[in-house]
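To illustrate this point, what follows is a protein record of this kind.

___
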Amino acid sequence: MRRHVPARLLPALAVLALLAYPASPGAEGATPADAASAVLVLTVVLRLVRESRSTRETGAAVPALSPRAALLLGAPVLTLALAALGAADAATGIAGLGRYLQIFVLVPAALLLSLRDPRDVRVLAWGLVALALAEGGVGVVQYLTGSGASYRGEDIRAVGTFGPGDVMGMATVVAYGLVAASGLALARSGEVPRLQRPLAAVCAAALLVPLALSFSRGAWIATAAVLALQLLAAGPRRAVKVLAAASAAAVVLVGGLGLGSAMLHERLSSITKVTEAPDQSVTDRYTLWAAAGAMWREHPAAGVGLKGFPAHRDSHAPLALSAGSDTAGAGQDFRVQPLLSPHDMYLLVLSEQGLIGLTALGGCWAALLVLGVRRLAGTHRRPAPRRRPLDCGLVACGLLVWQLVDFAYADIGGPATVMTALALGLAAWWGLAARPAERRTP
């Protein structure tokens, strides 16, 4: 059995490692993780060129994208270019085009070509778990020592190394790790190493604590939805075992030790009050959604252009919109974070790219989801020798579903955005390039 990490996976693992690089206050532009993602794309291109020349000699060239994969991942390119041309400022449009191509086209395609078999997927999944444990550990220390981001006048919000300016960063990383660990824990017996399932279950249970201490309602909702779907897809026996372990850990670490119980209960109960008595953050989100809808109604076909939302926000937003979001703590001074997006990916695409852009991007995501779920369902129908690995399907589909749910109240932006590209790449591998699981060899 192969035990080393293939060299082709090192750039993808470097992306994960560099996500933990501490964010500089007020820093903008490319991050170290973005640079690593560019290296990932470049190495895949160079490998394709090099191995295509030696195909006749070695017979082991990396396969190019299938026509269906190329069509699916390449469909948004034309609509993104159209939206970039419609931007008020050419430089802004080009910058937005580069960002969208990075997250939704280039990095997913590069990761699809880097993954060869289920073992590669498991290596990347454990990389997600390791990053989540590291960031989650920092977040728990921040809560216990009062050195986190400001929340209700106390510096207790767990944000990891992402800082108070990106409070969703650590929550996203931890949620990704939790979803990956849960998928690995629900693997079939005999398909994976013996220690993978109990170790993954312990990691999943441990990650519930930093996820709770992130006080991110959106991450809670998306994670709960994905875990429920994973349990249903895995079958009742494995579901009961993992659910029991996670519940016990939650009771001991959160309930028994009293980790933020009062504030957690208040934050959790606020989810049901977003329409009855919304706080300012919810009010701001409603007004931003209204502004995005107004922009789309004025430009229904092509939108206002890439990165055009900030310039059109004030002329379309209701008066209830505040000046910005107050941020402080985690080693940073008080700052007002400007609200430059609608905090809803679907509305952001609709307002800036119109129905044309939303159809292309949304259609790509929906197709990946349908293909992934269909193959996941097929893992239960095929005979054992030809079954696809269940854990890989649960990880890939789980991350995609988490991201699509999260897009309902968040959008791209910040250092953790490159995680979206990794989720799409894993989903593309599972839905477009996965093959039946190989027979285990000694």
User: Anything to note?
Assistant: Residues 7-22+38-273+341-433 form one domain. The mean pLDDT is 83. Residues 52 and 165 are 45 Å apart (CA to CA).
